[in-house]
Write a structure and sequence with these properties.
alpha/beta, Nitrilase/N-carbamoyl-D-aminoacid amidohydrolase, 7-stranded mixed beta sheet, 6-stranded mixed beta sheet, globular, Nit1/2_C-N_Hydrolase, omega-amidase activity, C-N_Hydrolase_sf, omega-amidase
Length: 272
C-alpha cells in the first residue's frame, strides 16, 4: 500500500494551515496514497507560547476538517498533531480518521520534550503541556499501526511494545530541531525499525528559518532492514513510498529475533 507524508509549511494563520493541509491530502489521495500523515503541530506554530492560543477541543475545528477530508478521499488520515484543550489541561495530540470519517485513535504525546543543551537549545513542553498516559494503535486492512509523537521516538520500550502488539508500521509526527535533527533524527528511526523489524515513518513540518523554533524537516520512511527508502529535504513537499509487507515477513523469517528473545531473562511490558 502507498503511504504519503505531508511535510507542510506551517504559518501563524490556522485557517491557511488547514486549507493547505487539506489540499495536499487531496493531492496525495489522487496519487494513490491509502495512508496519509501530517506533521506535528500542523495547524499552529510549534512553541510553548503558542499552545494555549491555538488549542482546541476534540472534536473541534481542525479535527472536523480532518474527518471530512478523510471521508472525501476515502483514506486513513493520521492528523499530525494539534494543541488540544481538555478539562483545563493542554495536550499535544494526534488524531486518526478512517475512510468513513470516523475517529479511530487519539494519541496524546506521552513523553514531554524537556531538554537543555547548553549554548544550543533549551525547551520545556511541560511548562504548558500535560502528558498522555496511553499507547495508541489502530487497524487498517493493510496492517496495524502504532503512534508516537516526536520525543516519544527516543523511548525504545514504547516501540517494542507496539511491535509486540502486532504493529508493522510506526508513525511519528515530529518536529526535531536544528541541533537534535542532524544528530539523531534518522539514527533513532533506523534503530526503532531494526530493533523491531518494522517500518518507521516520521513526518516533520517544513523548515521555516524565520520561526522561533526551526524544524529540521527531512520526513523519512525506514524499512525493517534499517534502510532509508524515502526522505524529504527541508522544503514543503509530499513524500510517497510503497510499504511492502512481504519484505517485512521475509526479514523476520531470515533473522527471527522476535522468536529468539530470552523472555525468561528480560521483558518489556505495557502497564496500562
Amino acid at each position: 500500500f502507498r503511504l504519503a507524508l505531508i511535510q507542510l509549511h506551517v504559518s501563524a494563520v490556522k485557517s491557511d494551515n488547514l486549507q493547505r493541509a487539506c489540499g495536499l491530502v487531496r493531492e496525495a489521495s489522487a496519487k494513490g496514497a491509502k495512508l496519509v500523515a501530517l506533521p506535528e503541530c500542523f495547524n499552529s506554530p510549534y512553541g510553548t507560547q503558542y499552545f494555549k492560543e491555538y488549542a482546541e477541543k476534540i472534536p473541534g475545528e481542525s479535527t472536523q476538517k480532518l474527518s471530512e477530508i478523510a471521508k472525501e478521499c476515502s483514506i486513513y488520515l493520521i492528523g499530525g498533531s494539534i494543541p488540544e484543550e481538555d478539562g483545563g489541561k493542554l495536550y499535544n495530540t494526534c488524531t486518526v480518521f478512517g475512510p468513513d470519517g470516523a475517529l479511530l485513535a487519539k494519541h496524546r504525546k506521552v513523553h514531554l520534550f524537556d531538554i537543555n543543551v547548553p549554548g544550543k537549545i533549551q525547551f520545556k513542553e511541560s511548562e504548558t503541556l500535560s502528558p498522555g498516559n496511553s499507547f495508541s494503535m489502530f487497524d487498517t486492512p493493510y496492517c496495524k499501526v502504532g503512534l508516537g509523537i516526536c520525543y516519544d521516538m527516543r523511548f525504545a520500550e514504547m516501540a517494542q511494545i507496539y511491535g509486540q502488539k502486532g504493529c508493522q508500521l510506526l508513525i511519528y509526527p515530529g518536529a526535531f530541531n536544528m541541533t537534535t535533527g542532524p544528530a539523531h533524527w534518522e539514527l533513532l528511526q533506523r534503530g526503532r525499525a531494526v530493533d523491531n523489524q518494522l517500518y518507521v515513518a516520521t513526518v516533520s513540518p517544513a523548515r521555516d528559518e524565520k520561526a522561533s523554533y526551526v524544524a529540521w524537516g527531512h520526513s523519512t520512511v525506514i524499512n525493517p532492514w534499517g534502510e532509508v527508502i524515502a526522505k524529504a529535504g527541508a522544503e514543503e513537499t509530499v513524500v510517497y513510498t510503497d510499504i511492502d509487507l512481504k519484505k517485512l515477513a521475509e526479514i523476520r523469517q531470515q533473522i527471527p529475533i522476535l522468536s529468539q528473545k530470552r523472555c525468561d531473562l528480560y521483558g518489556v511490558e505495557m502497564k496500562k
